[in-house]
Amino acid sequence: MTQLRQDYPRFVARDIEIIVVGPENAKTFAEYFSREALPFIGLPDPTYSVLKLYGQEVNLFKLGRMPAQVLIDKAGVARYVHYGHSMRDIPENEELLALGDEINTGQV
Predict the structure, then answer these.
(1) How many whole angstroms separate alpha carbon 6 and alpha carbon 40?
(2) H or E stretch including 82?
(3) For residue 29, is it within any domain?
């Protein structure tokens, strides 16, 4: 989330909103977002309903919920999905920004 926080103004300038979904309950999630001063939206998902909806993997041998990035257009259509195979398997912000630009201009 550090890399997302660093480039958050670049996402906002492109009319891209970041929503982070996590497995914690609402209180724990809110405390974490406040403590870390995260500028984007946090959505607690302790029942894994969002995880199940998007097919995100849980692997207990790899510390639980694997990372997933989903870019959803303004009509609510998932236009890009990346499922990480480890906690380090996360696309760079430049890639996400470029994909967001393509989605916003209707090129994807």
Answers:
(1) 11
(2) strand 78-83
(3) yes
Can you give the residue range of the structural domain that contains 49? 2-103
Q: What is the pTM of this model?
A: 0.76
The residues, any chain, with a CB within 8 Å of residue 82's CB and separated by 6 or more, are 68, 69, 70, 90, 91
Q: Which two tokens stand for residue 17?
A: 């909103």
108: in domain: no
What average pLDDT score do residues 59-88 get?
Answer: 76
Q: Tens digit of pLDDT for each residue in 8-48?
A: 999 899 888 888 888 888 999 899 889 999 998 888 888 88
- Number of other CB atoms surrounding residue 78 within 10 Å: 11
What is each CA distance from 50 to 22, 55, 91, 92, in whole angstroms? 9, 8, 20, 23
